[in-house]
Amino acid sequence: MAELCYLGGLVVVDSDDQILPTSAFDIWLSKSAEERWFSLVVLWLDTSRASGLIGKAGDKNIAPLGPELDRAGVSLIRRTTLKVLLENPQISPEISSMQEIIKWWNPQRANNEFVEWNLRETEWLGITGQGVISVVVALSRAFNGNFASLGKLQTSYTTAQLQTMGFNDAEAH
Prior knowledge:
By secondary structure, the chain is mainly alpha-helical. 49% of the residues lie in helices and 6% in strands. It is built from 9 helices and 4 strands.
């Protein structure tokens, strides 16, 4: 999350290596929860930074917010992962299955670690819950990604409503 906040200009690293909020952070806080969430998700989808590299055991220790996190193809892998999850809202795929699907869709860019990290990050961002695409994200497809409109929807859905959206084992929320 620190990576996304940094990319969004919400925090800055000062000369003493302290991470501090910016004035953009105050403006961001004044927005609705849907708008704040949407802005972070868009940054996550578009960034070329692979936060899974932070602290990874290996030849070189990569620090958060460092320039070594940029990797070509990460955004494409994220978008493909999200596409597969959106097209199959009723399943919670195994990581190995997702890795094979991503490799099939993007053979030159496939990286099993990136797929695993992306799936973990979808959970952190609330895009998925226990591996299944969240109701909010599934509903956003009906609104062409207009998450602000989702804030106006009723937040309590019946089991029947969720099942008509493709969530067959849904419980009322």
